[in-house]
Design brief:
Structural class: alpha/beta
CATH topology of the largest domain: Rossmann fold
Largest sheet: 7 strands, parallel
Number of helices: 15
Bound molecules: adenosine-5'-diphosphate, magnesium ion
CATH superfamily of the largest domain: P-loop containing nucleotide triphosphate hydrolases
Distance between the termini: 55 Å
Shape: elongated
Order of helices and strands: HHEHEHEHEHEHHEHEEHEHEHEHEHEHE
Helix content: 40-55%
Length: about 375
């Protein structure tokens, strides 16, 4: 099934094609028709499976560009996600003149208000900022057609339940409601069923990661010694292509600088780097012209970086699920992969959780001085 068969028009299909997107992902295949047809949908699919386009494309199809009302509202838990979705929506807006307003904290509210005086068709917002606008009566949601709760699980985790409910109350009962989430737990379900009308549930099974082909090791170190430990490991391994995960953007910046000074062929990837640059870096990395990609989870999310033989967890991931997600990028299709996790004493608790999940104690790697 291609996008055209799912009811997406040629102009949008061409934009997708230019971005290298030709085949719908499973969640897109299942959602696009339903959403376009007006159904309420609860969709569950892992991070990086293309949920954004699964709702943006049919919403674009359903938006009346001649109308002067806000027709769709996408609520998302973080500023980063709001920005990411806005970027994707702006690309699609080349096919159809849809005015998009991004409303998130940290951005000048008066320029947002000014923009609201024009016809806005779509708002992409974080809950707090949107409520500011509602309070100032700068947005009118009375003619809203579609409401999207994106990353609903994260939204609830971050304690936005009341805000989200306050927002929902400002929208017409006749609206279409869509709920997208990586996991649909009982909390998400409760929220969804409270505000949805005979929702259709769509779920894409988690990609099974086979860890058998991945050799896993742990280097026990300290925060102070970590960098040197990484450098010795890299000098010993000399991987063809590797990804190094750090916890924060600042840690990515610092490590990249240090690696550059040491003469490693590396580039960094995180959400403060311009999208165009990020795409350029990914292209160069895929071609094999960059040996080390230093990234945050957020930046690497959803990127198809299979073919990479080595994953280094410079910082321990937040939990075991994220660990499996990170290392699952190597060792695909029968190929051998290697991963090494650097832990400081404070990381032991998460390491134990990881070991419990994978079912064995990870072999320790000793670094010869
Ligand atoms: P999710 O919301 O499920 O975590 P995203 O919507 O952010 O995932 O998409 C992850 C990445 O996959 C993005 O970079 C997006 O451009 C890309 N992508 C989305 N749909 C497709 C597709 N059909 N083919 C290839 N890449 C896609
Ligand atoms: Mg998403």
């Amino acid at each position: 099934m291609d996008f055209k068969q799912l009811g997406i028009n040629n102009l949008l299909v061409d934009i997708l094609k230019n971005a290298g997107i030709t085949e719908p992902t499973p969640i897109q295949e299942q959602c696009i028709g339903l959403v376009k047809g007006g159904a309420d949908v609860i969709a569950e699919a892992q991070t990086g499976t293309g949920k954004t386009l699964a709702f943006l494309l049919p919403i674009f199809e359903n938006t009346d560009a001649d109308s002067e009302y806000v027709q769709s509202l996408i609520i998302t838990p973080t500023r980063e996600l709001a920005i990411q979705i806005t970027e994707e929506a702006n690309k699609l807006a080349k096919a159809k003149e849809i005015n998009i307003l991004a409303a998130y904290g940290g951005k000048d509210i008066s320029s947002q208000v000014k923009k609201l005086k024009n016809n806005i068709h779509m708002i992409i917002a974080t809950p707090g900022r949107l409520l500011d606008h509602i309070g100032r009566e700068t947005v009118d949601l009375s003619k809203l057609k579609t409401l999207v709760l994106d990353e609903a699980d994260q939204m609830l985790l971050m304690g936005f339940k009341n805000e989200v409910e306050d927002i929902i109350k400002q929208t017409p009962k006749t609206r279409q409601t869509l709920c997208f989430s990586a996991t649909i737990d009982s909390q998400v379900k409760k929220l969804a069923y409270k505000y949805m009308n005979n929702p259709v549930s769509v779920s894409v099974q988690k990609e099974s990661v086979t860890l058998e082909n991945i050799k896993q090791q742990v280097v026990e170190t300290t925060d102070r010694r970590k960098q040197e430990a990484l450098f010795s490991v890299l000098d010993q391994d000399r991987p063809f292509m590797a990804i190094i995960f750090c916890r924060t953007k600042v840690r990515v910046d610092n490590l990249e600088e240090a690696m550059h000074l040491r003469g490693f062929n590396c580039e960094k990837l995180h959400s403060d780097i311009l999208q165009s640059k990020r795409e350029r870096i990914m292209k160069t990395f895929r071609k094999g012209d960059i040996q080390y990609l230093i990234a945050t989870d957020v930046a690497a999310r959803g990127l198809d970086i299979s073919g990479v033989g080595h994953i280094y967890n410079y910082d321990i991931p937040e939990n075991s699920e994220s660990y499996i997600h990170r290392i699952g990028r190597t060792g695909r299709a029968g190929e051998k992969g290697y991963t090494c996790l650097f832990v400081a004493p404070k990381d032991m608790e998460i390491l134990e959780e990881i070991e419990k999940t994978i079912g064995f104690k990870v072999e320790r790697r000793n670094i010869s001085e």
